[in-house]
Structure formats: structure tokens, C-alpha cells
Specification:
It is found in: Membrane. By secondary structure, the protein is of the alpha+beta class. It contains nine helices and twelve strands.
Amino acid sequence: MRGLWVKLSLAFAGVVILSLLLTSLLIGLATAGEFGVYVAQGNRRWAEALAPALANYYLRNGGWEGVESLLDPSSLMMPGMGPMHHPMGMSGVAMWRMMGHRLILADETGWVRLDSEGTWVGTLLPEAVRNAGAPIWAGDRIVGWLLIGDAGSLSDPSAQFLGRVGWAIGWSAFVGMVLALGAGTLVFSRLVRPLRALQQASRRIAAGDLNARIPAQEAGELGEVAQAFNRMAEALARAEQQRRQMLADIAHELRTPLGILQGHLEALLDGVLPLELEQIAQIHDEVRHLARLVEDLRLLTLAEAGQLRLDREMVDLKRLIEEAVDGIALQAAEKGLRLEVQLPGELPPILADPTRLRQVLMNLLTNAVRYTPSGGQIVVRAQDMGDAVHVSVRDTGIGIAPEDLPHIFDRFYRAGKSRARSDGGSGLGLAIARHLIEAHGGRIGVESAPGEGTCFFFTLPRQEPDRGVSPIRRSVRDAG
């Protein structure tokens, strides 16, 4: 995670520095350009204001001879300024240099006759440079050109101004870099901290510690990531706990019948028990129990994996319920229980797998018979809810404790000692029933209280068969 922090910091620093440098450069160029235009316009206005004085000199003297005397600032004043005197005998050239300006006078042909710097005297000014100055008119003709510009020295006011502007831009860029990098460091440290916690928790989970969690204190996307990671870790922990519990339950369920089989076979081999049909029948019963347990586990595994195959067809639910009740009637009669069926005149047909629905009904009816004492009653009801069909199996049995109700549909779960393995159940019937009903798009539930009986119920949605497909039989895969 340190590498990520370094990469983010370097990338952010590069972007900030490049952006500020580019911004400073553009601001500096724009400022220099605009200020240059402003100064040039001001110098031209100054030259235009001084041009009449030079024109008068030309008319008085009939030419430009001795024009150097006009360098005296007291003779050529800036507009709006009074006469300027020579401090301590300073010459006119020195005065112009002190002011940071340069005065150039060219005659009508472009030859330089006066230069406050003295370097261009006797040279020919290019026409473009000459035309940038102010023309000097003597009557109706141009007798010369006057140009006033910056001297280009450190004392030049324009250079000093641009220098101060550049200094301010540079310091602003530097302060901006420092502030941006400081803020970026704080942001990246807050960003990397939860990511570092996520990295450490991920390593712990990869090492097998499923109790690793991330403090979900951040807001926004990082907080959502932390919460999602914690939910994932909790799901993994639950799955691992369920896996271990399932293995323990399977081992427990297999140990008893295998132990009985081993005991009977060893007794037969040792001659302790005679080899008679009765002993073989007991062994056969345990083998059937094992086969039923393995088949239930296979069915439950397919249902939980979403690979349970449903052979759907349009089912007459009323007839299916009556057949299931007839199948359990003998066991109920042997135990002295009253079976009552309360069905409407007609129930709408539903698209379902009749074998799986019969299995659900037999599981619920078998449980009702098993846990209802002699003399009790079992009532099976069904009613049309419009968009669904509601079926319930109510008994007057021992009931289920409130703390057991949330787990009653878990595999291998038995509520209390009263629901022990000796009663004949494997603890998988209700789990299978739940997955079968959910595979049909329905819902299953239970209502119970100790000593007041139990009511298992489920609802199945009404579904119309697809057009163009025979409603008699169809085979589909349902993800449950």
C-alpha cells in the first residue's frame, strides 16, 4: 500500500507542478504582452505630444542641426508635467536614462539624427520601425519621425514592473504548490488508510482468519466498500460455519446407522446372532435409512446450488392434496389421529412439478403425524388467493418453541429433545420442502407455540403456460 501512496503522491505532485508552471507561464506571457501594448500606446501618445515642439524647432532652424539640445527634459516634458531641472548638473541623456526611456528622432528619409542612447545615430531605421513612431509635420509635409520607448535597462520602469509581476507570480505558484501538495498528502493519507485496512483484512481472510473486519468509518464510496467487505467476510464466516456444521451433522447421521450395521454384521459373523430373516430385515431397514439420507442430501445439495430439475406441468392441486392425505391416512389412523381436509369446490391449476409438490406435502403431513399425540387432529386447508394458492397443514401437536422457529427450516435442525432422531426423521425434510417451494417461486412458513400445535403453510403463484408449448408436460431448470 506504500507503493500506491507514493504513486498517487508523485502523480498528484506532477500534475500540480505542471499545471502551476504552465499557468504561471501563460499569465506571465499574457501580462507582458498586454503591458507592452499599454506602454507602447503610452509612449506613442507621449511622442505625439512632443512632436509639435520638434516641428517648431525644425521650422525655426530650417533643419535638424543641433537638435541634441532638445534632450534636456526641461525642453521636452512629459504631458501634464512641469519643467524638470537638472539635479546636480545631470545631463539630458542621463536624465532620459534615469527615467528609463529612450528618445529617437529620424528625419523624413529615416536616418537617425538623435538618439538618447547614442547608438543609432547615422543609421537608417526600417520603414516598419519608423512608422511605429509619431510623425512630425511641418506645414503639410512630414519632416521627421519621433519614437519614444523603454531603455531596456534595470532601471526601466516597465522592466521593474514586469519583474515585480513575475516575482509575485512565482511566489504565488510556489505557495500554491506547497498548499496543493499539503492538501494532497492529507487526502491521500485518508484515502490510503482504509485501503491499507482493506489490504490487511484481505490478507487475514486469505490466511484463514474469517473474523477480520474493517472499521466502516469512512463516508462515500470507501465506506460502502468497507461495508461490502464486512458483509462478504460475514457471509464467508457463515458459509464456513455451515460447512463445518453440515459435515458434523452428516457424520453424526451416518454414524448411527453404520454403527448398527457394523454391530449386526459382527454379531452375525461371530455367531452371537443367528442368521435369520429378522436380523437381515433389521440390516435392510438401516440400509434403506442410509439410502434415504443420501438421496435427501443429494436433493438438498442440488436445490441449494440452483441446479434442481423441475418437470413442470399443469397440476390439479386439489387432487394432489387429496392423494397426499390418502397416503398418510393409514399412519394417522394407527396413531388415533383425526384427518380433516377443507378444500374449496375448485382450485385453479398451477404450473408445477407434481412429484416435488407431493414430496413437500408428505413431509409436512408426516411431521404433523409424528409430533401430534394420540387423539389429536390434523387439518389440511387450501384456498385461492387470486394470484396465488395458499395451502396449510395444521396440527394439535406439541408445538415449537419460539427460539426454534427461525431455524426450523435449517438442515439437520431438530427442535428440542422431543424431535430426536429416534422419531425417524433425518432433519432434512423441512429444508428440502423450503427449497422445493422456493424453486417454484413460492414461499413457505410456520406458525407455532409450545402446547398449541403447529401450522405449516406455503403459497404457490398462479402461472399461465407459455403459448405455443404444450401445457401437459415441460422440463425446465429452475435456479431456485
